[in-house]
Design brief:
Layout: H1 2-9, H2 14-30, H3 33-36, H4 42-45, E1 52-54, E2 57-59, E3 63-65, H5 76-81, E4 86-92, E5 105-108, E6 113-116, H6 125-133, E7 140-145, H7 154-167, E8 173-177, H8 192-209, E9 215-219, H9 225-237, E10 242-245, E11 266-269, H10 273-283, E12 289-293, H11 299-307, E13 312-315, H12 317-322, H13 325-331
Parallel strand pairs: 3-4, 3-13, 4-7, 7-8, 8-9, 9-10, 10-12, 12-13
Antiparallel strand pairs: 1-2, 5-6, 6-11
Helix pairs in contact: 6-7, 7-8, 8-9
The chain binds flavin mononucleotide.
Flavin mononucleotide (FMN) is lined by residues 66-68, 71, 90-91, 105, 114, 116, 118, 144, 177, 180, 218, 247-248, 268-269, 272, 293-296, 315-318.
């Protein structure tokens, strides 16, 4: 039934549909309806065969929610109750920001794909810290952190440090987002010129704070192989933990709805599955923690991400198009 409601909500403007669906999910969770509708599959999905550990972290299963679904941590308990093995909230920046003018999210219903140019709209790190602190969900939660739009030079690096300082007591891992195509020049942080300064500052800060959880770098699917290899080398040099492959892409495949071909922003969903799985395979490294994300809509997609080197898998578009039953489709 919830899937039917989700389907109807999808007929609305994408951002309105997103917020309404999450609010409804939260309401259903708060009044115990999720359980009644047996949407909360936790017990089945937390069987021994699905479990995964990385250092001190214990994941109930390998399927997580990707960054961007719950940017401010407003829906942690409700999303957690659906049976995901981990949640990633954010992207959060130090100061609140509105993001780009609307409309800024466009769905290609036929190709199960989305273009977004939200531009890190979020309520700021203090608001997110408060939500993380008051959560009841006991599974793994990571924070995906980024820089404010107006920060340049050293201020941009400081933005990541501010987020780590504010959130380190409340999260299990951090994702360093250098790959959103919607914050001007953010992807420059992939380059040799910037990545070592950024990672050196992060390493220094987590040591000073005594934060021992994983630090992951979320990469773009649009970078050259030599750029990605350099990032891998730097991740290892600074003894950080791993990579999330990938964020959305600036490619515009011919198949994409003609009306969306000229929309700026990042493409997600089925149309980037192959691209992001190819990148995953290229960066996969058995000495690192690797999360695969991009176009996962089925059990086969999930398995393929794992066989291409992912330890864990995240979904965004699949969850938006298929609703909560996707978890059962993949893990059931
Ligand atoms: C509307 C929308 C908002 C997103 N916001 C974020 C974000 O804030 N931070 C981030 O790292 N990725 C963000 N992403 C990217 C997703 O986390 C994911 O990496 C990408 O969509 C590929 O996965 P998918 O094909 O399953 O959607 C967003 C994606 C969409 C569609």
């Amino acid at each position: 039934m919830i899937d039917l409601i989700f389907k109807l909500l999808r007929l609305l403007e994408p951002e309105i549909s997103h917020v309404l669906s999450l609010k409804l999910l939260k309401l259903a969770h708060n009044i115990g309806l999720l359980r009644l509708l047996s949407l909360s599959y936790s017990a089945n999905h937390f069987s021994e065969k699905n479990k995964f550990s990385y250092e001190k972290l214990k994941f109930n299963n390998r399927l997580g929610i990707a960054a961007g679904i719950d940017k401010n941590g407003d829906y942690i308990d409700a999303l957690g109750a659906l049976g995901f093995g981990f949640l990633e909230i954010g992207t959060v920046t130090p100061k609140p920001q509105l993001g780009n003018p609307k409309p800024r999210v466009f769905r290609d219903q036929k190709n199960f794909s989305v273009i977004n140019r939200l531009g890190f709209n979020n309520k700021g790190v203090k608001y997110v810290a408060h939500n993380l602190k008051k959560r009841n969900y006991s599974g793994v939660v990571g924070a995906n952190i980024g820089a404010n739009k107006n920060s340049v030079g050293q201020d941009r690096i400081n933005d990541y440090i501010i987020c780590i300082k504010e959130l380190h007591q409340y999260v299990d891992y951090f994702t360093i987002n250098i790959s959103s195509p919607n914050t001007p020049n953010l992807r420059d942080l992939h380059s040799k010129e910037y990545i070592s300064d950024l990672l050196a500052s992060i390493k220094h800060e987590i040591e000073a704070l005594g934060f021992t959880g994983p630090i992951l770098i979320k990469i773009s699917p649009d970078e050259q192989l030599n750029v990605l290899e350099n990032i891998l080398q730097e991740v290892k040099r600074f003894r950080l933990d791993g990579i999330i492959a990938t964020n959305s892409s600036t490619i515009r495949p011919n198949k994409l709805d003609k009306n969306l071909q000229n929309e700026e922003g990042g493409l997600s969903g089925k149309l980037i599955y192959k691209l992001s799985t190819d990148i995953l395979e290229k960066v996969a490294d058995k000495d690192l923690l690797i999360i695969g994300v991009g176009g996962v809509f089925s059990k086969e997609d999930f398995k393929e991400k794992i066989s291409n080197g992912a330890n864990l898998v995240q979904v965004y578009s699949g969850f938006i198009f298929k609703g909560p039953s996707l978890i059962k489709t993949i893990l059931g």
